[in-house]
């Protein structure tokens, strides 16, 4: 008769298996709880009503990708992926944060209506979305004034209303949006000057105000905007001198003034802008000598100083800057010649 031996597992092995099973059980429990919390989380009812009203006024239809079974904060509205939120198929789009009240309440934090040819004004109901930190409604036909109450959306970090038909002055109340890191107002029918209160936006890193009907001088309060990285301000009737304090925006990578009505020279303080990769001061009525320090801006890839009244000698070292790709200096009163040898990176002159 064969004798079958039953081997008992070592005690340490049994404890290891028990620990493994406990870890798996705990992980499954946490996963189930997380899914349950996410399922139970619902959008703040006042925000749902506001969103419905806004969509009705703007003749918008919520897509199935996020408005699942009538619950706005669902589907892609819960994504943490910016690329998924900005996907063209997800338009109009919202994004939500469902971490409130022990993950039972969702608040709408982002609203995007991009390039849908919609009309209307910015309605009061947008104030019923107090957790908005992202509002992007570019490339539509929205009109009317930019309302002062938008300055009450204190969580806004991005406000982009470019390429619409908004009119009237920029409300000074936008200066209350202390968390704003991007402001885009370009290609509208605005009027008036830049409010000095915008100098309160000390976290602002990107400003796009090209072709929007503004005039006057750049306020001295803008000296506070030391986080600025990108400024596009072409085709406005700005006057006065380009302020020296722009040279203190040392994080600046792109500066574009084109078709303005400035006067005077390029500020010597621009020698501090060592992070610049694009400097466009085209057709802005500048005078004075060509700034020799330009050759010290070793990150510069594009330089356009054309259609001004600049004089003086073009430094030969300009043509041998390793970073420079595009160079436009035409229609000035400059002197000098192009050297026989130039940098291999310089493609356009």
From TrEMBL:
GO cellular component, one term: plasma membrane
Gene source species: Gossypium armourianum
Source superkingdom: Eukaryota
Subcellular locations according to the entry: Membrane
Main subcellular localisation: membrane
One Pfam family cited in the UniProt record for this chain: LRR_14
The Disease resistance R13L4/SHOC-2-like LRR domain, residue ranges: 97-210
Membrane topology: Single-pass type I membrane protein
Name used for this protein in its record: Disease resistance R13L4/SHOC-2-like LRR domain-containing protein
Signal peptide, first to last residue: 1-34
Keyword annotations from UniProtKB, A to Z: Repeat, Signal
InterPro entries noted in UniProt: Leu-rich_rpt, LRR_dom_sf, LRR_R13L4/SHOC2-like, LRR_Rcpt-Like_S/T_Kinase
């Amino acid at each position: 008769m064969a004798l079958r031996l039953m081997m008992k597992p070592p005690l340490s092995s049994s404890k290891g298996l028990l620990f493994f099973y406990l870890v798996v059980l705990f992980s499954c429990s946490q996963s189930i709880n997380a899914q349950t919390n996410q399922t139970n989380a619902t959008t703040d009812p006042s925000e749902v009503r506001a969103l419905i009203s806004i969509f009705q006024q703007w003749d918008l239809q919520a897509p199935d990708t996020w408005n699942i079974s009538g619950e706005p904060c669902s589907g892609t509205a819960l994504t943490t992926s910016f690329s998924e939120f900005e996907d063209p198929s997800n338009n109009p789009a919202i994004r939500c944060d469902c971490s409130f009240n022990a993950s039972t309440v969702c608040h709408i934090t982002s609203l995007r209506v991009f390039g849908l040819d919609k009309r209307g004004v910015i309605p009061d109901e947008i104030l019923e979305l107090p957790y908005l930190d992202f509002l992007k409604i570019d490339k539509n036909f929205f009109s009317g004034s930019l309302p002062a109450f938008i300055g009450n959306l204190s969580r806004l970090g991005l406000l982009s209303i470019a390429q619409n038909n908004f009119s009237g002055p920029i409300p000074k109340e936008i200066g209350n949006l202390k968390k704003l890191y991007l402001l885009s107002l370009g290609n509208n029918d605005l009027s008036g000057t830049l409010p000095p209160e915008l100098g309160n936006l000390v976290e602002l890193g990107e400003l796009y105000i090209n072709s929007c009907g503004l005039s006057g001088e750049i306020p001295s309060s803008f000296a506070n905007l030391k986080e600025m990285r990108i400024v596009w301000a072409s085709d406005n009737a700005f006057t006065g001198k380009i302020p020296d304090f722009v040279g203190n925006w040392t994080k600046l990578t792109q500066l574009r003034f084109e078709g303005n009505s400035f006067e005077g020279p390029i500020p010597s303080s621009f020698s501090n802008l060592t992070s610049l990769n694009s400097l466009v001061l085209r057709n802005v009525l500048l005078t004075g000598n060509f700034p020799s320090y330009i050759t010290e801006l070793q990150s510069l890839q594009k330089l356009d100083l054309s259609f001004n009244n600049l004089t003086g000698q073009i430094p030969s070292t300009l043509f041998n800057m390793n970073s420079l790709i595009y160079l436009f200096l035409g229609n000035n009163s400059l002197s000098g010649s192009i050297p026989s040898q130039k940098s291999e990176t310089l493609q356009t002159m």
